[in-house]
Each structure stands twice: as C-alpha cells, then as structure tokens.
Amino acid sequence: MMFNKLTLSICIIILMLSTAYAKDMSQHHKKMELSCKDCHASGQKVIPTKEACLTCHGPLDELRDAAKQPESELFRDTNPHYSLHYGDGLECSACHSEHKPAKIYCNTCHHNFEYPDFPTNK
Where is the Tetrahaem cytochrome domain (predicted)? Predict the structure, then answer.
C-alpha cells in the first residue's frame, strides 16, 4: 500500500509541474486565446517547428524585411531572420520561446548585437 501512495504522489507532482510550465504563455498569445495545440499540433511537449510559427507569423520574407537592421560600423547585415552564417536555416526557437525568456542567439558568440524591438515575454 505504501508503494502505491508513493507512486501516486510522484505522478501527481510530475503532472502539477508539467501543467504549471505549460501555463507560462505570453500575454499576446493569451489574448488571442490560443491553446497548446495551436503551436504543438502533435499534442506532444516538443519545440514547435519554424513552419508552425510561420503559420501565424509568416511568411518568412516579410519577417526578414520587417526585422532588417541599419548597418553599423561593426556589422553590415544584422538581420535576425537571415543570418550570414545560417541563412534562414535557424529555427525560430533559437531566439524565441513561449515558455521561457527570449534570447538573441547571435550573442552566443558575438556578445554585442542589439535589437531594440526584440520581443520579450511580457
């Protein structure tokens, strides 16, 4: 009987933690009344593909045009949606996340890219 109570307790804790994590959604997406399956079509807890993101946020060429940054002394092209290293091959999740703070992937190596309009999960 003790084993069953312990197993049940562990299952309940895991379920509560996974549900709490999933509730952390951006205000923008909450206002749109999106559900988990809008991004996670398979119903699985996996990172959505670029194609899933572009269903609402695309097409990619329009994102690229909107995100183009002015050239600076250091950088000729700092468009976050078209990298000189990766082209348009990076997944959206390299920078954007629904359930944790967004980050500028380029700064993993460069440490000095700034995008004033970069969205956060506020």
Answer: 28-111
